[in-house]
What we know:
The protein is of the alpha/beta class. It has two domains: 14-138, Rossmann fold (3-Layer(aba) Sandwich); 150-212, Arc Repressor Mutant, subunit A (Orthogonal Bundle), CATH 1.10.10. 54% of the residues lie in helices and 13% in strands. Helix 6 (153-163) crosses helix 9 (198-212) and helix 7 (168-175) crosses helix 8 (179-193).
Amino acid sequence: xxxxxxxxxxxxxxxxxxxxxxxxxxxxxxxxxxxxxxxxxxxxxxxxxxxxxxxxxxxxxxxxxxxxxxxxxxxxxxxxxxxxxxxxxxxxxxxxxxxxxxxxxxxxxxxxxxxxxxxxxxxxxxxxxxxxxxxxxxxxxxxxxxxxxxxxxxxxxxxxxxxxxxxxxxxxxxxxxxxxxxxxxxxxxxxxxxxxxxxxxxxxxxxxxxxxxxxxxxx
Length: 219
């Protein structure tokens, strides 16, 4: 499949810290800034929700227990809103059931305070790597969709039959077209979709089908 990775570019990574303790926010902010990350800090999940998430890799460091709030419940809320932000949980009051729940719901790590700086940085880097991969996948999917949208309705019909294994003569009969017209459409499809072969085109078609069936880590 001739999609490749998006063009390499410097991507600033952001760490979003959500913790009601000012001293914890400050300590984690200083640590992350020393590693070159952009940092935003919030005292509550409500503050976080007012933030405009940037179009760059993001990882959240989230306290489990805050006044009137539960970080684990917020994790579920974010997932329901399709805000796919990797989360590193930190807590002074963790237990095994709590950590199991967080990890099953997709958390990157569950750290108990006090934790080693390196453990937190390792978890954050893991979250940012996941965020980066997801954003790259989104870009690649958007590019593939744009190629498909550039096809005419007729070309889409022909592509559908090609990827179902029909030969030129069969496609011509199915769509009531001349074989020459089908061949012209085929060339146009290969050019617009930037497909190197029929196998390549088939993979693109399968990818488009998966994209339309839902996220599931972008299929």
